[in-house]
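#structure-requests
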Amino acid sequence: MKSEDTPFVGGPLDGRVLPVLLGLTGHPPKTYRVPVPDANGGPPTVLVYQRVQASRSKRLGLHQGWKYEYDPEGKLGRGLKWPWSKTDAKADRPSDATPDPHADE
């Protein structure tokens, strides 16, 4: 598999350049999670970095690589923004469950 040296901005990995495996499309993953072990043996802390565009060329405005920015809130990802996405549709749709007729007894 191919990898690409990708810079990290912000957080504990600020200024580091790490090799990141590329996906089938030739891009690094949108979200990069780094588990950091706890010194006391507790559950590890997970640092979350989001992929953003590094820069554009001046003349043609072409994409020139990726970088990762620290996400202190640790969001899992941006998800789909489409109105028909499963997560949005379930929130707007009333429940399909039928009420229990014996619930009042």
